[in-house]
Input
Amino acid sequence: MGNISNLPIPFLVLSFITILCALYVVTSKNPVHSVLALILTFFSISAHYVLLNAQFLAIVNLMVYAGAIMVLFLFVLMLLNLSKDSEPVKSNLWGVAAAISAGLLLVIITASFQKTGIAIMQGNAPEIGLVKNLGRVLMTEYLVPFELSGILFIAAMVGAVLLGKRDGATVQEIMNLNNDTNNA
Output
């Protein structure tokens, strides 16, 4: 059975930062501060991915969650214009129930990872999360599905441009407009 002294110091520091930021997300009264703490949580989770030698997951986590989702959250918060007088009054019973549920979940997760967590940390494949290996697999075994998904994304972008065109402009006119603004 493993013990906390066997864990690397950077892992422990990042775990402490992640847990603190996640707790601040839940306990903060200001929604903007909560979103900013969530961004810090995502950054520290990405750092965990780097420690686990999964660089691709770290970059995707930063781009998708810390980038796109957090911008969306901030825009929603700005559009909602939350104020204290429009917030409903909640009883403390929900907070107590949530704390008990979170504690029970923590106990269950800790019990389930006591034996399997050590085996995962002592894995024999240090190169498993490298982008080079992912690219090799995508360009050999999964080349056709990879190319088909690229074609699907291009079709979706063309569809979005066609749906978003203004004043009956054709695709060629939109492309010319984009070229004119890029040349200016």
